[in-house]
């Protein structure tokens, strides 16, 4: 089935259909799930492996999500935390599609603006909106700049 | 639809165009009834006399009418309603909305829900583009803006007028001199943005050190609430106060500006020197706002 993994096999049981997010920066698996909006209270069946040996990266994290194929706009958020991540779409136990993640130009409703005075932190019917710049995430409403620790600001 | 939300949205040519238009209004080369069938809502969720009056004056001078909603009325109109809904409703009454709001980004949000143009008249610690335009206009009345030395003095941390003026000046090859009390320095990300825009930013310890180099000294308010106690406030405020003694040996064309109202930042004795230009600056609010109102409703 999926015996190609050079570390000598799957750490978790294979899935029939779903998504494998591989080559996640070590330690970021849980944040990757958060940025996808997947929490303990959502329904997905998940397996998570962290700090797995990887030829390419030293250590990496892997997330497997059963019965859900992630869409491009969902996976691109992952690039904010784990730019090397690879998305594998699994159908009938086989990898049918493999794609990298690309940093999106704009992210909506994923990260909360840290500025308490920002209009997006009120009951107004708008989602937080950041443009992604080299130096960080720039709030398109209040001009706040999130320079690091993006994971801490995930909604 | 043309909204005026943030100075960041403007290219230099657009700023110059608006300044040229303001000059036409200033010198009286316009048709008085230009907006005589138009109605603007001045929607102020925060107190402001000057900005609100100058928009009302500008509208009246163009022959248009305004309905003015002050901060007390505004808060009772909305009673828990979102700004988005308020804007949708008021959009259906008027031809443009001028908005002052305590939250940063409020004007951007309003522009997304409005069916008429929105002019930002200040959103919290955020943007106040008509102020920046009138500042530029006042400078340009005396000298070409290109390549001059501008000093920003005062609260450069929270002072929105200083930030948006600096952003605008970065389009004119200006060298910026910052003079701020400890703790009220310009935020690093703004200084970085200015430098990325190619601006030279020079920090100074005190006014004396910088003032002889300057063509413009832009003084902003140092607010008492930024300090733990009044002793430390008075201490800082007095060491940043502009007095006539400081003006020895300055450039002849130096202009001192202040967005007003001032607290104690400028000694009234300075008012009588040729450098004091802040009242002229305040007066320029009208032609600038005429240009903005006309531009969005023409
Ligand atoms: N049916 C499956 N169930 C669970 N995990 C799977 C399944 N098929 C593949 N995987 C996992 O998906 C990832 C990608 O699989 P693939 O067979 O493409 O490996 P690879 O050749 O090492 O790819 P890469 O170059 O991306 O590392 C691996 O981590 C693999 O263990
Ligand atoms: Mg592999
Ligand atoms: Zn914000």
UniProtKB/TrEMBL annotation, chain A:
Gene Ontology MF annotations: metal ion binding; transferase activity
Residues of the signal peptide: none
Annotated residues for binding of Zn(2+): 113, 118, 139, 142
Domain Aspartate carbamoyltransferase regulatory subunit N-terminal, first and last residues per copy: 11-101
Gene3D superfamilies recorded: Aspartate carbamoyltransferase regulatory subunit, C-terminal domain (2.30.30.20), Aspartate carbamoyltransferase regulatory subunit, N-terminal domain (3.30.70.140)
Cofactor note text: Binds 1 zinc ion per subunit.
Domain Aspartate carbamoyltransferase regulatory subunit C-terminal, first and last residues per copy: 107-148
Family assignment from sequence similarity: Belongs to the PyrI family.
Its job: Involved in allosteric regulation of aspartate carbamoyltransferase.
Subunit structure: Contains catalytic and regulatory chains.
PANTHER family hit by this protein: ASPARTATE CARBAMOYLTRANSFERASE REGULATORY CHAIN
Annotated protein name in UniProt: Aspartate carbamoyltransferase regulatory chain
Native source organism of the sequence: Methanoculleus sediminis
Lineage per the UniProt record: Archaea, Methanobacteriati, Methanobacteriota, Stenosarchaea group, Methanomicrobia
UniProtKB/TrEMBL annotation, chain B:
UniProt keywords, alphabetically: Pyrimidine biosynthesis, Transferase
PROSITE patterns in alphabetical order: CARBAMOYLTRANSFERASE (PS00097)
UniProt GO MF annotations: amino acid binding; aspartate carbamoyltransferase activity
Pfam families: OTCace, OTCace_N
PANTHER family, alphabetized: ASPARTATE CARBAMOYLTRANSFERASE, ORNITHINE CARBAMOYLTRANSFERASE, MITOCHONDRIAL
Record's subunit section: Heterooligomer of catalytic and regulatory chains.
Name recorded for this polypeptide: Aspartate carbamoyltransferase
Organism from which the protein derives: Methanoculleus sediminis
């Amino acid at each position: 089935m999926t015996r190609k993994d050079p570390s000598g096999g799957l750490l978790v049981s294979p899935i029939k259909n779903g998504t494998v997010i591989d080559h996640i920066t070590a330690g970021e698996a849980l944040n990757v799930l958060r940025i996808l909006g997947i929490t303990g209270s959502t329904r997905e069946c998940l397996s998570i492996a962290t700090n797995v040996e990887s030829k390419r990266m030293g250590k990496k994290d892997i997330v497997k999500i059963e019965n859900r194929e992630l869409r491009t706009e969902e996976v691109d958020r992952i690039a904010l935390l784990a730019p090397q991540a690879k998305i594998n779409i699994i159908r009938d136990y086989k990898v049918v599609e493999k794609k990298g993640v690309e940093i999106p130009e704009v992210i909506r409703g994923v990260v909360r603006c840290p500025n308490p005075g920002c209009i997006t932190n009120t009951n107004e019917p708008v989602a937080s909106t950041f443009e992604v710049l080299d130096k960080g995430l720039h709030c398109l409403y209040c001009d706040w700049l999130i320079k690091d620790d993006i994971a801490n600001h995930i909604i | 639809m043309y909204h005026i939300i943030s100075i960041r949205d403007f290219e230099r040519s657009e700023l110059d165009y608006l300044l040229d238009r303001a000059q036409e209004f200033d010198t009286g080369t316009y048709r008085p009834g230009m907006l005589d069938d138009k109605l603007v809502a001045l929607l102020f969720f925060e107190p402001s006399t000057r900005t609100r009056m100058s928009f009302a004056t500008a509208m009246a001078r163009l022959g248009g009418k305004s309905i003015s909603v002050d901060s007390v009325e505004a808060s009772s109109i909305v009673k828990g309603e979102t700004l988005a809904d308020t804007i949708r409703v008021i959009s259906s009454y008027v031809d443009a909305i001028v908005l002052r709001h305590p939250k940063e980004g409020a004007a951007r949000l309003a522009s997304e829900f409005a069916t008429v143009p929105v002019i930002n008249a200040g959103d919290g610690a955020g943007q106040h583009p008509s102020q920046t335009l009138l500042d530029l206009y006042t400078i340009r009345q005396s000298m070409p803006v290109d390549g001059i030395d501008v000093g920003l003095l005062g609260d450069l941390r929270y002072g929105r007028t200083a930030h948006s003026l600096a952003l605008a000046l970065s389009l004119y090859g200006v060298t910026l001199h910052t003079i701020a009390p400890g703790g009220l320095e310009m935020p690093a990300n703004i200084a970085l943005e200015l430098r990325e825009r190619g601006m030279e930013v020079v920090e100074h310890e005190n006014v004396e050190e910088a003032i002889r180099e300057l063509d413009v000294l832009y003084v902003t308010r140092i607010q008492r609430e930024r300090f733990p106690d009044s002793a430390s406030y008075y201490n800082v405020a007095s060491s940043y106060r502009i007095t006539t003694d400081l003006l020895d040996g300055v450039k002849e064309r130096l202009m001192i500006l202040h967005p007003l109202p001032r607290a104690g930042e400028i000694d009234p004795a300075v008012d009588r020197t040729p450098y004091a230009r802040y009242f002229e600056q305040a007066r320029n609010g009208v032609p600038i706002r005429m240009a903005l109102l006309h531009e969005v409703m023409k």
